[in-house]
């Protein structure tokens, strides 16, 4: 097959027959077999697709040629209003029919952190890592959904994690060493993504590994592989047989995502969307892809993410001379894609059965010069999770749900050096901003619920100027929806800017609390606690640290700050019963 596909160069440097057979030559064919079985249609299909895409790239073909962009239809939500609360309730009811898919193939090296990204603390007030936060959020939704169910409910919401060679063993270790953070081990399934062959030239000649002449060089294929893995593993059929209706895809370092999930799922089930992309308001021309409806001259339509550097020229070329501009709302009519998808399971299985799990690919070779005849280094085909809708028929119900960025979007992608170079007014997407955005969101939610939360101050950490709000966190079991927050906060409450508040308990009610300092609340499952009155102490002081100081742990260093825990009031309720801190 390799020789027929023009790959005989792979054998030119082989030693004489009978030598290097066992490990080297047999190992080569083991690798080829893995590359063949892990790609829809096999390795021959990969080479054919590569030749087609490389030819298009060399010609400079525009992938959107013949398409006209228009504004797609979707739901724009305003946090805390009646519509939002209703969608949240509908989503919580429906979530027991959902499976979550976490795309987690990446290491934290780009962040200046040597572990897997899922092990990184989402915030350092409690030190809760991303994976723990995600699992506790799913468990809180599972319980809230079952409470709303009529009659018996023993739902266990599945969590599927797509890993890579780099992250599979550390992810399993993180789960096992923490008792799966409260999930049952059979609720969690790991699917390992394989790499794809690298390409040396426009003829799609496979690249020999520079370190081992009996290996083909490989690189990651992209997070679009999650769809083919779900299809080929048979997991989607298992989910359907279990009566599930939805699959929700999310990424590994967004500490705010679960604040958006109940309402977005409510939109999906109410509107009966086949595909629902979560989105945030987007300023025109900002460096975030826009969700766009594309209509081809031949009648084909699709609603997909179009990268910002493609959207503006596409609009200009199709009768919009000013390109991507803000509407009267102050934002572009093309909302910003945040790469979280909710798919309706039935139509999803039908589509993947039709495509055998394949997702539209692209290639991005780095050419040596304008002749485009040779590459600076080997390339490979790539695919993206959010490109799934590209192959759908026009009858598919594809929409989006827009929510405020402060509520839904705090990705952690950049290391301190790169974040400090971000042009003014653009998001840092660093561990610093990610943590500060969590405190901002929690402060604004409490403010909306009637708490007098002090305004933030501005401070600079690791060269990044950020708003510092009170350091407020709560466990997902305390509140997953705005209605729950409103139910548990009452009276005349206030929180000063320098304060820290941690709520770790399900039935904790905050009434007439005036907080200036640090308050830590821990309550066991069956302890109902009412916290009242003033709390005043020296609190936890936020202090700068140098991200180059190697005596400080990496996960702290990359933020540029740590807490000096000077004084706090810690209330621990370790027994079932009703309690109040005033008694």
From TrEMBL:
SUPFAM superfamilies: Nucleotide-diphospho-sugar transferases
CDD domains: UGGPase (cd06424)
A molecular function GO annotation: UTP-monosaccharide-1-phosphate uridylyltransferase activity
GO term, biological process aspect, one: UDP-N-acetylglucosamine biosynthetic process
Sorted UniProt keywords: Nucleotidyltransferase, Transferase
Membership in a protein family: Belongs to the USP family.
Name of the protein described by the UniProt record: UTP-monosaccharide-1-phosphate uridylyltransferase
